[in-house]
Design a protein that fits this description.
Layout lengths: L15 H9 L5 H9 L3 E5 L2 H15 L6 E5 L4 H9 L3 E5 L10 H7 L4 E7 L9 H8 L5 E4 L7 E2 L2 E2 L6 E5 L12 E5 L16 H13 L5 H6 L20 H12 L1 H18 L12 E2 L4 E5 L7 H4 L15 H4 L10 H9 E5 L6 H14 L1
Length: about 375
């Protein structure tokens, strides 16, 4: 491999025509296009998925008459989910995951859900659809709404149902590395009348956001990405920050997102083809199975490599660790937990063993096979 090449761990190549449409079109119609794609009735947009999660939780809390103040979230998830709960002024409760399937641990889920639970968050790590049935069963008898974290899942389906349309509410993120990577922004969708009271904040025209997206497109080229890795940009860092801003999705970004949504199908299909290469080369015991009827989105491909550092030759090919620890092992997060003594061995195992493999358009089938060979040599 050319020593000058650095492959990004996640990327979505945006064609110049998409930027042109975003800059030259007067109106976006993005929210209605996303509703049509998902079969949803309502859509709210904002500057990020975590902002929308906070807005939704605050609305649910305001309407609640049972003094419920806890949000039940996976013990292994993006730290932004926990930050959203804290920013909404609520307490965190967690349920464990099966370390082999990433599905909710049903016993842990049932034990954690209770009278103080305001909402339960269900997720699809790496765009692998996880059936929502167990979460709905835990929530149904208690009248708890289910929020589907589909930040990594837009464009994927389970038995014909889009990810983000399996629960009361769907949360999407359009930041870098997501299936629909418009540079920033997020969406909240659903059919509940609750969404009528949540308004999309006004966004800027989006010139700065578009310039940033264009620059990232250039710097994500393998001959240039190494420069970004060496700069103090915080690439790949996972931080817990409840002080994030809540604002509008820039207008030009909405137009870009609408254009990318129209081309999402072929992009996801290509990611799946790279995932198929990994599956054919790597042992089943260390990959995450796809549920029956699943059509994953695969912004990255998960592999249980075990603990240890990632070698330089794998790092340069886009292989990375993900969230560094389970939520129960992050002191900055556990201070906001509803109670002590929570165990989540599955989440700890995922954090310890998981690496992610790139699936984006710069990864050829040959590159995917080489990554698989190196993993089997080193792990």
């Amino acid at each position: 491999m050319n020593r000058l090449l650095w492959y990004p761990p996640a990327e979505t190549r945006i064609p110049p025509r998409a930027f042109a449409r975003a800059l030259l079109t007067a109106r976006s119609g993005f929210e209605s296009s996303l509703c049509s794609f998902l079969g949803a009735q309502r859509c709210v947009s904002a500057n990020s998925g975590r902002a929308l999660m906070t807005m939704l939780l605050q609305t649910l809390k305001k309407a609640d008459n049972k003094n419920r103040d806890q949000v039940l979230i996976p013990a292994y998830t993006c730290y932004s989910v926990a930050a959203s709960v804290v920013k909404a002024g609520l307490k965190i409760a967690v349920y464990d995951l099966d370390p082999h399937t990433f599905a909710p641990d049903e016993a842990s889920l049932k034990a954690a859900a209770g009278g103080a639970t305001l909402a339960i968050v269900h997720q699809h790590l790496f765009g692998i659809p996880q059936p929502a049935g167990p979460v709905h069963q835990a929530a149904g008898g208690l009248g708890i709404p289910v929020i589907e974290d589909a930040a990594q899942g837009l464009g994927g389906f389970l038995n014909g149902t889009p990810m983000g349309a399996m629960a009361d509410y769907g949360i999407f993120s359009f930041g870098r590395g997501k299936p629909l990577a418009a540079g920033c922004g997020g969406a909240l969708t659903g059919n509940s009348e609750t969404l009528e009271s949540i308004k999309s904040p006004a966004g800027t025209k989006g010139a700065a956001a578009m310039c940033t997206s264009m620059a990232v497109q250039v710097l994500s080229h393998p001959l240039l990405y190494g420069i970004m890795e060496r700069l103090p940009l915080g690439l790949g860092r996972t931080i817990f920050d409840p002080g994030f801003a809540v604002g509008g999705m820039p207008q030009a970004v909405k137009r870009l997102a609408k254009s990318l949504l129209a081309d999402l199908g072929p992009s996801i299909a290509r990611r799946r083809s790279i995932a198929d290469v990994y599956r054919s080369c790597l042992p089943d015991s260390r990959t995450v199975p796809e549920p029956q009827g699943a059509q994953p989105a695969y912004p990255r491909f998960p592999f249980l490599a075990g603990p240890g550092e990632i070698s330089d030759r794998l790092f340069r090919r886009g292989v990375r660790r993900m969230y560094p620890r389970a939520l129960i092992d992050e002191p900055e997060i556990t201070r906001y937990f509803a109670g002590p003594g929570i165990e989540a061995p599955g989440a700890r195992q995922i954090a310890r063993e998981l690496v992610t493999l790139p699936t984006h358009s710069r990864i050829t089938r040959q590159t995917a096979r080489r990554i698989s060979e190196l993993l089997m040599e080193e792990c």
